[in-house]
């Protein structure tokens, strides 16, 4: 299976639409939020299925959609697949959505770094 890799630092309209489209479904949104809270270590597919109450065949479809959108990554650890949120893509999407918020040339998007936690950069903005 070919998976398109994106430069997560660059978010354009096409990538934003793909990411938002992938999140515009109840199970995928819950799945993404679960992986964000799990941190960089991620979760095994079986654990995700158990926590969300989703059948493995259905879960595979939803995971593939999020991987294709660049919002999560997949890695193999022995015989298990581990999935993690792609924080760079999440931050890039938030920055794209809030670019020039309030009509100002200010950055309002929160930045999430799983190592240090989430910080709002709104406190560092200046009025136009």
Helix percentage range: 40-55%
Named at the architecture level, the CATH assignment of the largest domain is Orthogonal Bundle
Biggest sheet, strands in spatial order? 1-3-2
Q: Supply the number of structural domains.
A: 2
End-to-end gap:
48 Å
How many separate helices? 5
Set down the secondary structure blueprint.
Blueprint: H1 13-23, H2 26-38, E1 43-44, H3 45-52, H4 56-68, E2 72-77, E3 80-85, H5 87-97, E4 110-113, E5 117-120
Antiparallel strand pairs: 1-3, 2-3, 4-5
Helix pairs in contact: 2-4
Describe the protein's architecture and organization.
The protein is α+β, with helices and mostly antiparallel strands and 128 residues long. The chain has two domains: 13-86, Orthogonal Bundle (Arc Repressor Mutant, subunit A); 90-124, no CATH class. 44% of the residues lie in helices and 17% in strands. It is built from five helices and five strands; from the N terminus they run H-H-E-H-H-E-E-H-E-E. It has helices at 13-23, 26-38, 45-52, 56-68, 87-97; strands at 43-44, 72-77, 80-85, 110-113, 117-120. The strands form two sheets. A three-stranded antiparallel sheet has the order 1-3-2. The protein has a two-stranded antiparallel sheet with strand order 4-5. The protein is globular and about 50 Å long.
